[in-house]
Amino acid sequence: MPMMSARMSQLGTETAFEVLARANALQREGRNVINLGIGQPDFPTPEHIVEAGRKALADGHHGYTPANGILPWREAVAADLRRRHGIDVSPERVLIVPGGKVTMFFAIMIFGEPGAEIFYPNPGFPIYESAIRFSGATAVPMRLHESKGFSFTAEEVLGLITSHTRLLILNSPANPTGGVVPKDELDQLVAGLARHPDIAVLSDEIYGEMVYDGQHVSLTTYPELAERLILLDGWSKTYAMAGWRLGYGVWPAALFPYAERLAINCHSCVNAAAQHAGIAALTGPREPAREMVAAFSERRDYVVPALNALPGIRCVNPGGAFYAFPNVHDTGLDSRTLQSRLLDEAGVAVISGTSFGALGEGHLRFSYAANLQALTEAVRRVGHWLETEQR
Ligand code: PLP
Question: Is the pTM value of this prediction over 0.90?
């Protein structure tokens, strides 16, 4: 085997893809598996968006574009941010990239190196911890508290800061917990950060349009963070466009050239035709996206009480995204065992909480990006398995 760099041993992965592969293998063997492991909307991309992509191909958009994305698209992002958050963002600070993950990776590469500390939510999206370790930085977990609807506490986070801390990663609404950080917690954190002007913040708001109780509070609405806030957002969730690979970052002016340079070194630009589909998503009818959120809300209202009725399971009501993160401690089985036995024996694919960090032990992630019929059958199967097979 050729000799690789030592940092390769630090790179983690996303178990969701492994569970998906195992579920598919079982299905090929003729087993009936309900897949609640998946982290993407179960709806197709709305037709007017698909049509815009098709038209762009027919119209000959086949070449490179500017690395940061075509101007009408960046303008559409700025207009969308004004509509949603009431903020003014120059399109010059918008860097369009192939998916939400890219902004995360770039931010971590910009700040991470041996000796630096980067804070990340735990349990949280697994790529944060993986990419931080890969950069050589120390990954410092910010504990999310089940008793607080899976929010961090600002006091605790501020207390962890040292002279080595460079970047805080926040994610609300969150994967895998569905947790939403309350505004007063954000207020306290932002106020405390005034004492640490050199620390940057990456706010992953990719589920920002999927909030069921109240309003999403974007960190972009705190002017005091403007010089050091990186906003991560994209099209994968809101517009059911995960496979199109479209996302964006809004960068402070001083950091933008570095992020753009990473883009030029890495992918040159986003798929040209897909850029036109991305514009259509932001400027076209909003009804399809609204209907999807309404469906997720209805499913949440079914699945959370249904999970709470199962033996050994209790589930906090998630405020956003499309995940429930029940506590399964009282089943007496660890999360990973439950994940594999529920898949193999009950035919339900869910993800072990430990796939989202060590602090996810005792939990499973159920994605409710599946129709009500599938959710009902999945809950029935899990309930039956817990009551019978386990013993
Ligand atoms: N951030 C969070 C919290 C996510 O859950 C995901 C995807 O699951 C992403 C970012 C990445 O999104 P994308 O598929 O657009 O790269």
Answer: yes
